[in-house]
């Protein structure tokens, strides 16, 4: 996975195309990500305890990581990420400006 928790990403397709948000969760197993404020689904909640109110909550659903591009913090553009090995460490680079993305 080239996308990490905390990255700012831009949505490339779907209902939320063009939106940007912070990655709040990464699911490497399915290569999916959950982005704050993106792919919201309404969830009906029933009151479980007495006195608790039911209602409709908006919950972020995961989307496939291929549908988002990381926004480079340096050039501020949605970009593909290149991964380069530097010694033992892998470094992520912006394909547009070449900046290192931590
Ligand atoms: Zn860049």
Explain this structure.
The chain has 102 residues and is mainly β. It has a single domain, classed as SH3 type barrels (Roll), CATH 2.30.30.30. 0% of the residues lie in helices and 49% in strands. It has strands spanning 8-11, 20-27, 32-35, 40-45, 55-60, 63-64, 68-71, 78-79, 81-86, 89-94, 100-101. The strands form three sheets. Strands 6-3-2-1-7-8 form a six-stranded antiparallel sheet, with no helix packed on it. Strand 1 (8-11) and strand 2 (20-27) form a beta hairpin. It starts with 7 loop residues before the first strand and ends with a strand. Zinc ion binds next to loops.
Provide a quick synopsis of the model.
This protein has 102 residues and is mainly beta.
Name the descriptors.
single chain, 102 residues, mainly beta, SH3 type barrels, six-stranded antiparallel sheet, 11 strands, 0% helix, 49% strand, binds zinc ion
Could you outline the blueprint of secondary structure elements for this entry?
Blueprint (H helix, E strand, L loop, with lengths): L7 E4 L8 E8 L4 E4 L4 E6 L9 E6 L2 E2 L3 E4 L6 E2 L1 E6 L2 E6 L5 E2 L1
Antiparallel strand pairs: 1-2, 1-7, 2-3, 3-6, 4-5, 7-8, 9-10, 10-11
Bound molecules: zinc ion.
